[in-house]
Amino acid sequence: MNATLKTFMSEKRKWFDTQLSLIFQDAPITPKLKQAMRYSLEAGGKRIRPILIFATLNMLGKNENLGLRTAIGLEMIHTYSLIHDDLPAMDNDDLRRGKPTNHCVFGEATAILAGDGLLTSAFQIIAEDRMLELETRTEMISLLASAAGPEGMVGGQEDDIEAEEKTLSLQDLILVHRRKTGKLLRFPVEAAAVIAKVEKEIYSTLVRYAEHLGLAFQIGDDILDIVGDEKKLGKPIGSDVANHKNTYVSLLGMTGAKEKLSQEIYAAIEQLKRINCESSLLNDLALYLLERTH
Amino acid sequence: MNATLKTFMSEKRKWFDTQLSLIFQDAPITPKLKQAMRYSLEAGGKRIRPILIFATLNMLGKNENLGLRTAIGLEMIHTYSLIHDDLPAMDNDDLRRGKPTNHCVFGEATAILAGDGLLTSAFQIIAEDRMLELETRTEMISLLASAAGPEGMVGGQEDDIEAEEKTLSLQDLILVHRRKTGKLLRFPVEAAAVIAKVEKEIYSTLVRYAEHLGLAFQIGDDILDIVGDEKKLGKPIGSDVANHKNTYVSLLGMTGAKEKLSQEIYAAIEQLKRINCESSLLNDLALYLLERTH
User: Fold this and answer.
1) Three-state secondary-structure class, residue A44
2) Does the beta-carbon distance from B109 to A121 stay under 8 Å?
3) 3-class SS at B80?
4) Fewer C-beta within 10 Å: chain B N or C terminus?
5) Beta-strand (E) ranges in B9-102?
């Protein structure tokens, strides 16, 4: 990974993780529930979504502080989706980020409630974000709910479940993933664009960058589920095959999937050239997603 | 029930149900997920929370239209909480509002997602409510999330689960219920007060009314779980005893619980006298809660 990006990621991640750990520290929440929420929220992970907010704000010449609470809300929603996705009634996974999944530690009922709690708090944190104007807050909540809700991630998860017994076309698989993982990876770039109040044209260009990046991210995950290192990933590989999931690898083969990944990354980078800003962070972030599968 | 209240409730409920049925009608949501969300959302119920918003707005001389989208968001959150509460990992109930519970019809995975989807959409609907000023929207989202989240309802549900094996004191039981059901019954009165921008003192008085009402509502539910009519309730009675739940009846006996219910109702009504407004709707609503257990 490029040295500048590496420093940026590690510094922002450390800062973000510290801020995140303070959020519920003194909140009057039943101990076991608070523990369950914090267990998954503070389990680490790459924090790729928050980093995307900070990197885009940086590129647009804005203080990264302005995106902090939005980033925390977004990470809460990402985390809740993992907790619910891992439940026995869903993917039934035991391991996540190298640790036993939430329901394995706290039981199913508390895991469901911890997810519900994180999802609810995410919107509260943005509604109360005094760093942002009122109009920015309502727009942010609307965007985030749209990306995470039934027209976005939750809908994509339902599609994904229903697709388990079918073989999808490449077109259909892309549609499922655009909702299931794409919209929540597109949101951070949009969030930064909303905070920076960019012109319409730059907004659309950034959204196209994020859409290519999001698709590449999913293809990368599919590849890593076969050739990845369990220790690095923090979860067992091969679960897609075991769950009869449609993946880019099952549809295109390993070579085809890697080719498609590479296409998407370069399509993302191509978009950045249209914006008259120093965009090396977003450029290198895209290249990093390519790198991690090689 | 008082004739004026009866007309008000039946008219507002009809209006609300019609508006509610339009919300997801044309939304681009995966068919099965949309069906699952609408199944529980449109299963009826007394719509007591929306009615409380409308009745309070009416008392404060405001158009009830101003509270419509907040009422829809609130009912979505109430509905999601019922769907998740009925899951096998939680209360494992088969019947709700006279119909099979969500997971019995659509399966556990889709029921979890339908709940997640309703919870997420609730905030979107308020964030996009053009009838309200931006400041009112952010305050509303903050209030609702606080009432529904880990410091409110979700926390109360966790408390409730943990209390199943213990015998609570009356004081502790009241604390659990203040969060589990109280905060979401207090919210509609607060929401109307926020929309009407009432003075601090009236706000506090209304909140006290709502807190007594919320407690009375829960005591009433506990009583009805023993002496209620299964057909009218739409769910089997006796489930509290079967689940070893702490209830006001188990702690105070039936006579004691009815006495406490009556005390709370008259304490609620007492608050209304402090406000210089025509408050007969809220007055009669309180009396109705007393009536339904007799």
Assistant:
1) coil
2) no
3) helix
4) C
5) 95-96, 99-100
Please measure the distance between the N-terminal and C-terminal CA atoms of chain A and give it in whole angstroms.
12
Kindly tell me if the per-residue pLDDT of A294 is higher than 70.
no
Q: Residue A77 is encoded by which pair of tokens?
A: 């929603």
pLDDT tens readout for residues A220-244: 999 998 887 777 777 777 777 777 7
Q: Are the C-beta atoms of A137 and A126 separated by less than 8 Å?
A: yes
ipTM of predicted complex: 0.95
Is the Cβ pair A138, B135 closer than 8 Å? no
CATH, residue A256: 1.10.600.10
**Domain coverage including residue B194:** 3-291
> Is the CA virtual torsion A138, A140, A141, A145 positive or negative?
positive
Reference A57, options A198, A213, A185, A249; nearest CA is A198
Flag whether pLDDT at B212 surpasses 80.
Answer: yes
pLDDT tens-digit map of A10-58: 999 999 999 999 999 999 999 999 999 999 999 988 899 999 999 999 9
Q: Which residues of B168-198 are buried (b: 16+ CB within 10 A; e: fewer)?
A: beeeebbebbbbbbbbbbbbbbbbbbbbbeb
What is the number of structural domains in chain B? Answer: 1
Task: Report the residue from B87, B137, B146 with minimal CB separation from A138.
Answer: B137
Task: Test A123 with B112 for CB contact under 8 angstroms.
Answer: no
CA distances to A107, A163, B160, B221, B286 from B245, in Å: 19, 40, 8, 13, 25
Share of chain A above pLDDT 90, in %: 81
Region label for A245, one of left (φ > 0), alpha (ψ between -120 and 50) or beta (otherwise): beta
Rounded to a whole number of angstroms, the distance from the CA of B201 to the nearest CA of chain A is 24
